[in-house]
Amino acid sequence: MSLDLPTSLSPSKVSTFTDCALSFRFSAIDKIPQPPTVATVKGTLVHAALERLLALDPADRTIDAAVSCLADASSELDTDPEWAELALNADEQAVFFRDADVLVHKYFDIEDPTSIEPIGLELHVEHQLQVKSGSSVTLRGIIDRLERDANGQLVVSDYKTGKAPAEGYQQSRLTGVHIYAYLCEQIYGERPSKVQLIYLGGTPTIVETTPTEQSTRQIERKVTSIWSAIETACERNDFRPKKSKLCSWCSYQQWCPEFGGNPDDARKAFEGVERPVRPNGFSQA
Ligand code: SF4
After folding, report:
1. What DSSP line would sit under 171-212, residue for residue?
2. pLDDT tens digits, 176-204
């Protein structure tokens, strides 16, 4: 029996499919919910604090203001079901908030927020991408920060609350922001002059690159070919597991054949259950 095609693709879904097609099936097609983790909830909190900070007038973006922004964002956790699901005890909560505070402070080690001119924060972008088969797919995502640099050119930034990867792996992590650059070019008719990942974990690091005509065409080809592979996998009901170190963080292990499970049992287990879904199958912020 063929599987239903997902209705859209996002940078995180592209990354999930590339990492493991079966994980993509669980998250994007079967819509199996993934339990929240401390890392994902903390990542969301720090993103919210920085979004508030950058929304202030430039001169007001001080460390004290950032701490207030974090406190404001933290107060909303009381009504956040994912926070409730974590069920942290008092000591664990203290560590959680201390770590979030450290990440917000570290942001100031890597960038001067008073110099940033954001034109979009948590900006929703989408574009209808024509694919070879004559059909089209909606490519969409949320850009953490779109800004104008000193020369008036667009810059796409994505915050990461984990550590920066080793140098040899950094460029491969830029696919998501390259997709955002492609979306900006399609929507605004302007190719960003820079895309960057701002890592706040460990030693704060910015990994950046310049999108080019060649990289833009490569991204278009990559997304098109991934969509074709997804169409074929859906037609054949054939999403294969790809065992890797990411399996350690995968919340779908119990239904994965690599771990003795049956993928069809996942769908049956959640039949009729409302299924909110996070962007990928791994617990990474
Ligand atoms: S456990 Fe590993 S191989 Fe199995 S679905 Fe998850 S990431 Fe893929």
Report:
1. GGGGHHHHHHHHHHHHHHS---SEEEEEE-SSS-EEEEE---
2. 999 999 999 999 999 999 999 999 999 99
Confidence at residue 276, expressed as pLDDT on a 0 to 100 scale: 54
Full-model pTM: 0.90
Q: Is the CB of 22 within 6 Å of ligand 1?
A: yes
Distance 263 CA to ligand 1 centre (A): 11
Ligand 1 atom, smallest distance to 242 CA: 3
What are the pLDDT digits (tens) for 87-126? 999 999 999 999 999 999 999 999 999 999 999 999 999 9
Q: Which CATH number fits domain 1-30+117-264: 3.40.50.1360, 3.10.20.590, 3.90.320.10, 1.10.10.10?
A: 3.90.320.10
Atom of ligand 1 nearest to the CA of 251: 6
Q: End-to-end CA distance of the chain: give it in Å, rounded.
A: 35
Q: Which atom of ligand 1 is nearest to the CA of 244?
A: 2
Instruction: Supply the residue whose CA is at minimum distance from atom 5 of ligand 1.
Output: 23
Distance from residue 269's CA to the centre of ligand 1 (Å): 18
Question: Distance between CA atoms of 138 and 72, rounded to whole angstroms?
Answer: 34
Query: What is the pLDDT confidence band of residue 77, given thresholds at 50, 70 and 90?
Result: very high
Maximum Cα–Cα distance across the chain: 59
Domain ranges of the chain: 1-30+117-264, 38-115
